Amino acid sequence: MQLNTITDLNMGDQGTFWLPDGASTIAPEVDSLFMFVTWVSTILFVGVVLAMLYFAIRYRRKSPGDRPQPIKESKILEISWIVVPTILVLLVFNWGFKSFVKMGVAPPNAYEIRAEAWKWNWRFTYPNGTTSQDLYVPVNQPVKMKMSSQDVIHSFFVPAFRVKKDVVPNRYSQVWFEATETGNFDVFCTEYCGTAHSDMMATVKVVSQSEFNEWLESGGGATDDMPLPELGELLYEQQGCQTCHSMDGSPKVGPTWKDLYGKPNHPMADGSTVTADEDYLKEAIVEPGAKIVEGYQNVMPASYSSLSERELAALIEFMKANSQYAEDGSGS
Amino acid sequence: MATDTTTETPAAPAQTEVDHHHEEHLSHLQHHFVSSEQQFDSAKLGMWLFLITEVLLFSGMFVAYAVFRQWHPETFSVASQTLDWHLGGLNTVVLLASSFTIALAIHYIQKGETMRSFWLQITTISLAGVFLVIKYFEYTAKFEHGVFPGAMFDPHGTAHGVDYGALASYAYAPQFFSIYFVMTGIHGFHVVVGMILIGWIASRTYRGHFNSEYYTHIELSGLYWHLVDLVWIFLFPLLYLV
Amino acid sequence: MDSATKGAEVGHEEHHDEAHDQNYLQYEPGIWNWLTTKDHKKIGIMYAVSLAVVFLVAGVLALMVRTELVSQGETIMDADTYNQVFTMHGILMVFLFLVPSIPAILGNFVLPLQIGAKDVAFPRLNLASWYVYMIGAIMTCAALYFGGVDTGWTFYTPYSSTTGGGVLWMTSAIFVSGFASIFTGLNFIVTIHKMRAPGMTWNRLPLFIWGLYATSIVQVLATPVIGITMLLLILERTLGIGIFDPALGGDPVLFQHFFWFYSHPAVYIMILPAFGIMSELIATFSRQRIFGYRAIALSSVAIAMLGFLVWGHHMFVSGQSAISSIIFSLITYLIGIPSGIKVFNWVATMYRGSIWLQTPMLYALSFLFLFTIGGFTGIMVGVLAVDVHLHDTYYVVGHFHYVMMGGSVMALLGGMHYWWPKITGRMYNETLGKIAVFLIFVGFNATFFTQLVLGAKGMPRRYYDYVERFEALHQISTYGSYILGAGLFLVLFYGLYSLFYGEKASANPWAAATLEWTNVAALPDPHNFVRTPLVTRGPYDFHLADEVFGGDGMGDGATKTLDVPEPAPAAPETAEESSKA
């Protein structure tokens, strides 16, 4: 709760007073436009406030009987403060409009990645079928995101790239960017989408072209020979399970996975209890609405029914590895 | 003029003698109006403003109609053919006639022929009733074949050469009927309100509350009724004839 | 002038007596008479009480939001509660407070007085407006009872078609309270057109009236659209008619178009009357004719009209076509210009005036400061390319709080202080008033300037939790909001105190020149004017307003208790003074 020191306000290496570090080709344009408007505004603002304060002091009431002479209105003055701001805003409009058009048109050589959004996660799919929960992109390469939503409106926002686009159900939306620096950057959802809206985050990992190719060829890190519990842990992050299900026992949007596997007398909303065996867990993933755990809402998306048998088994093995009930000799 | 005038007698706050101009205090004149003319003008302007809000209310729905029709022209054309334009046309004639009778009612009250105005108001209400009865038959004919607004939309069967079942193959047919039912429903609600309004006016006319000098309520109800009519004039071709 | 004086003398005597016999507060007392009153002044007060309660509740919700955000993770509530709290803060503030605020309280009270009318054109409709508003407020409570609302005040589909038990009640509440807004607007337009006193030409209308007039146009034209939008949303949830919900074949972006077609003009419903109050305050406390009267009056109407053509600037990243975005952006700038004209004209009005820094004037100066920031940040979010970065971040939150709170609420507070003596017949405590302005001003900037910075750095709005680098700024914002809250509670405190123990006010404590001060007793007559006034000069022609200078009320309004000075005891003083000289 303590207030951090004032130096932290500048965020160290995290950019200027106003803006975070830009890491895309469009960022410098947006930034200079932002700073231009800020400076022009500041100058005009200081002018207005100084004039106001000066008048308030200089012409302060001297006696209750003051009867100042009315001043004549000046046509020139009035016209000038219509014309000058008009010119300024048209200048700014023209500038902003050009950059906006540039943002809207992806270069023809752009690399295409699909993004799927749902409450409350992102899944990125690359041309070779690899999927990941964090977004991997090569540096200095235009990337076009083709985005869709499974439920409500979300919005894809990378502050460092200065790009944002709503992801609307029942239609594809597009956004493109070209990263200019390697590193990790935040992806936020900026269209309010419910309980875990603020947890709907991902990371953009900008890597060199060769690293990217390597990562992509390995299928996002090969999973075929991976032991099931490890694959489960990977899927837990990739599929976004961790947004709603904790591994430390604390309740989030959904029940925790800690000590869930094999848990006897797991209470349901309808008053019954079940044992959280493999069948139950599989049903809970594939058909989340079938049984609702007491104290929770039926909000889990049905999209996990597309997981393969191996992936389901991996998730359940992962839960098993994190459960105190696992030794009780239930199932395999 | 001296500036330090705190002790002087106050100058005159300007006032008028308007208040003494009430020659005779008319019974219908509310206290805050200066004259019946001012009262009448105010009421009329108020009514016009209210009608503007009504137009905007309906225009919201017209926009929804236009947008969906733009996106799915074929669906809208097929769906619209299932509506019976004969009944719709008949209703148009009925409403136009009712607009005419209410206009005549205003005409006669201006001439001081109170009872004639009264009977014309009753005619208007009756015509509105006819409109609603026809609308009722139209609605039930649709409901019988599962043509409901929204989620319950489940078209089936044929009747009078109209193949309702075929609608099921058009993805956006529910939208057409949602819009149809919402628009005609809200319009029908306005018709009911109009009937109650004119009924109230008619009873006051019968009791002799109005005369050739004072007939604000009848005139304003007439304006309202013309609007209800006007909305239908737009609804009919857009929904039945496209 | 001499010939008129004698007549006025008689008029004044009557006036004087009547002020003792009956003022509007004493006239027809009792709870039932209040609930059935058709007096615009009493309806204004009833609105003031209701809105004060709403503002208090919504303000406390805001403090809860800020407290939750003071540090990362869960602080005082869980995510679902937080979502409901910020949603209710937004809905209450926008639909139940800001939209009615100035027109329903001060507009109702002041408008007929300022144009020299006995009442608004349709007093019964005016009372109905309050009742409809109250029904809306009760339905809002029902929404909370039936499961709450967590959609944000914007009700974007499809989220709002699927979530929360209270959405149906809430949308119905907004549908209903829209009628209250329409009734008020309709009433004002007719009143301004038809009920002006003789001599009150359009060029002599006080600028507050012009502001209300422009507001009323927007209310009448825009509100039906939110009505039909809410109705369609209600039908969508009950019947599944599928206009907006993509799961049923509808289009969520269409909802946004509908919603903003009302909600952007609604912003002008909130700010235009505030402009009007600003003109009154600055002219009166500078005792100077307003600079560019016509420009200010007409720019209000221009803003009202242009306001209907810019709704799409809320949707630059929503997927509407680029062409629409570009057109909306261009028109948005055009609105910036009349707003700028007003600010320049207000500052110019102070030039060579006689500036009296009482509390209402301090609010006016704060308004100039804050609204200018609000305006410039508005230009910023109108810049297409920059808005892509700033959209739905705290920059937008900061921007609209600068305009809505720094603009509308500051103007409302200034106006409440200004007309307080006329409404209650008592003065508030000037020292406490000045302390409160200071607290509010400082607290406000600490709260919301940090939010501008947060937003530019990429902090999205409506976030329950945030990444670590935003924490320091969030803390400053939260502590600022406590200062702001303290200032507002101070206002509440000395306002209530003054109702019972405040010094009696005179008829014209500010030496203002509009009719409600010059031709009305300290506490107005039930029918406002004993005689309908005759208007012979502009509202801010202080150099022609002898009655202003002749009256008492030159001091703090504290020394004298009656509205009419008694010449007899005053005479020796003059003699003494002249003998000294």
From TrEMBL, chain B:
Residues 1-16 have a biased composition (Low complexity). Residues 1-21 are annotated as: Disordered. It is found in: Cell membrane; Membrane. One of its GO terms (molecular function) is cytochrome-c oxidase activity. One of its GO terms (cellular component) is plasma membrane. It is a multi-pass membrane protein. It holds the Pfam family COX3. Residues 44-242 form the Heme-copper oxidase subunit III family profile domain. Its main location: membrane. The chain crosses the membrane at residues 45-68, 88-106, 118-137, 177-202, 223-241. It comes from the Bacteria. The keyword NADP does not apply. Keywords: Membrane, Transmembrane, Transmembrane helix. Belongs to the cytochrome c oxidase subunit 3 family. This is Cytochrome C oxidase subunit III. It comes from Longibacter salinarum.
Automatic annotation (TrEMBL), chain C:
Keywords: Cell membrane, Copper, Electron transport, Heme, Iron, Membrane, Metal-binding, Respiratory chain, Translocase, Transmembrane, Transmembrane helix, Transport. GO terms for biological process: electron transport coupled proton transport; oxidative phosphorylation; respiratory electron transport chain. Pathway: Energy metabolism; oxidative phosphorylation. It comes from the Bacteria. It is an enzyme of class 7 (translocase). One of its GO terms (cellular component) is plasma membrane. It catalyses: 4 Fe(II)-[cytochrome c] + O2 + 8 H(+)(in) = 4 Fe(III)-[cytochrome c] + 2 H2O + 4 H(+)(out). The keyword Transport applies. Residues 26-536 form the Cytochrome oxidase subunit I profile domain. It is found in: Cell membrane; Membrane. Residues 9-20 have a biased composition (Basic and acidic residues). Belongs to the heme-copper respiratory oxidase family. PANTHER family: CYTOCHROME C OXIDASE SUBUNIT 1. This is Cytochrome c oxidase subunit 1. It comes from Longibacter salinarum. The gene is ctaD.
